[in-house]
């Protein structure tokens, strides 16, 4: 099993097995195992799943000269929520905001996640850091002081 990162030419190996022995690799190593429901079961089990685990995975099966690959996409949805420092608005740098999220077992939202929440009715008159280090205002109704009168 590998995790495929489109931005990286190399695949990140997660688990290799010969059917009897197996070896785990990378940051998922302690959280992955094979299900082994039957002799030919190559199902991957990931425990303690987090949003960072989402993405494209590849299972490559080799049996002698025969080879087969299967790709799957693990899509995880989180909840977009605001975080405001106790001392007031707009005091966190990108790196501080990222750390505050990690302290709460969360992560900064991606632009796609924020857009999805906005299309579902999110209307906050607060700017916030996103994972790509941009800042956005998810506003539906303009009003003072959010670009309206």
Notes on the structure:
The protein is an alpha+beta fold. 13% of the residues lie in helices and 26% in strands. It has a 4-stranded antiparallel beta sheet, with no helix packed on it. β1 and β2 form a beta hairpin. The protein is elongated, with a radius of gyration of 21 Å.
Question: What characteristics describe this protein?
Answer:
elongated; 10 strands; 2 helices; alpha+beta; two-stranded antiparallel sheet
The number of helical segments is: 2
Quaternary organisation: single chain
Q: Strand portion, in percent? A: 25-35%
Structural class: alpha+beta
Q: Low-confidence segments, ≥5 residues, pLDDT <50?
A: none
Helicity, as a percent range: 10-25%
Distance between the termini: 55 Å
The strand count comes to: 10
The SSE string, one letter per element, is EEEEEEEEHHEE
Would you tell me the overall average pLDDT?
Answer: 84
Strand order in space, largest sheet? 2-1-7-8
What value does the Rg take, in angstroms?
Answer: 21 Å
User: Judging from the principal axes of the Cα atoms, what is the shape?
Assistant: elongated
> Biggest β-sheet, characterized?
4 strands, antiparallel
